[in-house]
């Protein structure tokens, strides 16, 4: 039995801003460590390669959290679910901040990732509470908050870690989450679930949804590869800037987040382009721009100016592709929106976790050019699969094969 979500209050402009802020503050927790990895490694007496486990375990935790909790958005009150997960997230931030050994940091980072689900529940939550004619604007607005959080988290943590200590970053994040959660509890509307399904049925239906929706499979593959390449860059940047070629401290790596933010904030222009030419065209353009960024990193990355240009292109491309892919998957049936989002986000973090780890190994073995090669290859695959005609795509062929079985 299905029915529409019903809100007790309309989604006002102030509430939309609140949701975007919550997206940014929540997702920031997963990225504070990246510019601090060398400093944390020295403090805990851990090698650069071993420190690569921290972002990888965080990404794996997020993927697991999305799989476990995200589908519940189709069958429970989203507001209550988000508040419960944010409360758990505050506890895990305290665990990370209290870590005194590498082992404790590893498992607390994984738990922190497990509870970093709110920023992925918020866009479909807002979409459910918005009329169809403004849904693209709403999800695009939250996407800006999402990417601003990812990029500015590095800036904040770079400075705080340099002038205070890496632990302080997480205590400040904890306080910020408490404030934003209190505002959300006071102002966010409620929504009634669209379906009456058991949790087991809900999870089993994920495979069916994935196999039946070729657009979802393509979006998840594309963004997983792009997000993985994105994480490969940011995981390696702090190590690269500390080399004798630059000899720069952690907060400089964080400052690149501000540069990337300029690119990310320009991406809503692609939303308008998607309205005119279609989101599929905007995805192709976004992946092409991201691919160009890796060419810049490869040939001009030995200079700060080259890194700056590359960061602008990378963040513009990945944000444009993300917004356009969301526009594609949110056109699918509204009663499966949380499960569609679950599968899409799982694609992101499968790529993010895999390439974060591969990036630290590439860095340890081959340095900056190893990281650039990894990022270029992943992004090239993402671009190619979107330019291949639909019937010949691997994602389409695989889906048809399993449905036939």
Your description of this structure?
With 405 residues, this protein is mainly α. It has one domain (13-404): MFS general substrate transporter like domains (Growth Hormone, Chain: A), CATH 1.20.1250. The chain is 78% helix and 0% strand. The protein contains 18 helices and no strands. It is globular, with a radius of gyration of 20 Å. The two termini are 28 Å apart. Residues 1-8 have low confidence and may be disordered.
Low-confidence stretches: 1-8
Radius of gyration over all CA atoms, rounded: 20 Å
Beta content? under 5%
Largest sheet at a glance? none
Task: Assign the CATH superfamily.
Answer: MFS general substrate transporter like domains
> How many domains is the backbone divided into?
1
What is the 3D shape?
globular
Please state the structural category.
mainly alpha
Number of strands: 0
Order of helices and strands: HHHHHHHHHHHHHHHHHH
CATH-defined topology: Growth Hormone, Chain: A
Count, helices: 18
Mean pLDDT over the residues: 84
CATH architecture assignment name: Up-down Bundle
Classify the helix fraction into a percent range.
Answer: over 70%
Name of the level-1 CATH class:
Mainly Alpha
Report the end-to-end length measured between terminal Cα atoms.
28 Å
């Amino acid at each position: 039995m299905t029915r529409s979500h019903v809100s007790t209050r309309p989604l006002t402009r102030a509430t939309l801003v609140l949701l975007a802020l919550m997206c940014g503050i929540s997702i920031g927790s997963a990225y504070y460590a990246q510019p601090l990895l060398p400093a944390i490694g020295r403090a805990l007496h851990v090698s650069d390669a071993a420190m690569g486990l921290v972002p990888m375990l965080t990404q794996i935790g997020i993927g697991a959290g999305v799989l476990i909790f995200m589908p519940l958005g189709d069958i429970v009150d989203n507001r209550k679910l988000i508040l419960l997960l944010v409360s758990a997230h505050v506890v895990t931030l305290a665990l990370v901040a209290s870590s005194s050994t590498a082992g404790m940091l590893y498992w607390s980072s994984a738990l922190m990732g497990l509870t970093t689900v709110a920023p992925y529940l918020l866009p479909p939550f807002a979409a459910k509470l918005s009329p169809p004619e403004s849904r693209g604007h709403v999800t695009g607005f939250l996407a800006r908050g999402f990417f601003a959080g990812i990029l500015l988290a590095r800036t904040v943590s770079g400075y705080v870690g340099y002038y205070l200590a890496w632990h302080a970053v997480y205590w400040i994040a904890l306080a910020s989450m408490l404030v934003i959660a209190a505002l959300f509890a006071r102002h966010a509307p409620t929504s009634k679930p669209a379906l009456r399904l058991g949790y087991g049925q809900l999870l089993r239906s994920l495979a069916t949804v994935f196999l039946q929706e070729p657009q979802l499979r393509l979006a998840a593959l594309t963004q997983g590869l792009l997000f993985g390449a994105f994480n490969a860059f940011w995981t390696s940047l702090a190590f690269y800037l500390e080399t004798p070629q630059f000899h720069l401290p952690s907060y400089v790596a964080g400052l690149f987040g501000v540069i990337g933010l300029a690119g990310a904030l320009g991406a809503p222009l692609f939303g308008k382009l998607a309205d005119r030419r279609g989101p599929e065209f905007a995805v192709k353009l976004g992946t092409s721009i991201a691919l160009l960024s890796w060419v810049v990193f490869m040939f001009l990355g030995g200079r700060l100016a080259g890194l700056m240009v590359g960061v602008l292109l990378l963040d513009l491309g990945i944000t444009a592709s993300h917004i356009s892919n969301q526009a594609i998957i949110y056109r699918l049936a509204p009663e499966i929106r949380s499960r569609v989002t679950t599968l899409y986000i799982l694609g992101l973090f499968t790529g993010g976790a895999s390439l974060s780890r591969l990036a630290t190994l590439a860095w340890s073995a081959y340095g900056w050019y190893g990281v650039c090669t990894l990022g270029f290859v992943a992004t090239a695959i993402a671009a190619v699969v979107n330019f291949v005609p639909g019937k010949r795509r691997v994602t389409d062929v695989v889906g048809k094969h399993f449905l036939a079985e």
